[in-house]
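Input/output pair, single chain:
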Amino acid sequence: MELKQIASFVAVAERLSFVRAAEALHLSQPALSAQIQQLEEDLGVRLLERNRRVVRLTDAGSVFLLEARDLLARAQAAGDRARKAAHGEVGRLRIAFVFSAALEVVPQIVAEFRKKHPGVRLDLVNLRTVNQVQGLLDESLDIGFLRLPTSHPQLKITIIHREPFAAILPPGHPLGAVRRFSLARLRDEPFVSYGREWAPGYFDATMRMCAQAGFSPHVVQETSEMYTAIALTAVGVGVAIVPRSVLSAHAHNVVVRPLPPSLGVSEIGVATRAAEPSALVRAFVELAQAHGGLGGSGQ
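Output:
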């Protein structure tokens, strides 16, 4: 039983005429009759009673017509969804993000993607960088928003956002009032740091910044979240270096001393598997590039 046979039967059943059905299908009458005959043989029932003057549905034909219309509609819908999937218009994306990207970067991109692709389901989860890398490699994730530097030979990472760093100090800290602040002034301070265990590339980058300023920081506390680092700084555990955007909702709790971009900048990237991604993944990454504020570059 083939779809073309079913479509031919529906054409005859709706017109009760082989002549008009053949014209509509652009088939010869013998070819159309052969298709209907083969369909009846495949089903083992007679669907149409016909002679030279009249064509009418049998009881089996009336029941089969209802099912045939539904089958053709579902086949058409399946084809439409397949074509939309090929163009990144339907499907499901499993997306992870570091919490520090949730405030300024991820919401705008997700909202715009939902607007442009309402047929796509987005599953969002907050995960640390190392967990995102693992999720992408074991294919439990499709896309990750992570803090750079991060690299892996099986991943493609596209930079979408760049921002300067800031040093944060506890309220009332003496260095909060100095006119000529520099990172080197923190050489003797205890540091709260985003832990290397959770974001090794980011940890190493901040350590290099301190090395460029002439010292190796004394890290007294590591944390898995930047907002926890801010909270610990606020109660006097130590000082910290964070991307400026993470301070937008918490700057009132700490003293903020901006650092010059020449020391380095913090980057957020969108990570996917390096193997050719789906059209849906490509569509998301392209939109993220456009709305993240930077052109893309792969690593």
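DSSP finds nine helices and eleven strands in the chain. Residues 132 and 138 are 10 Å apart (CA to CA).
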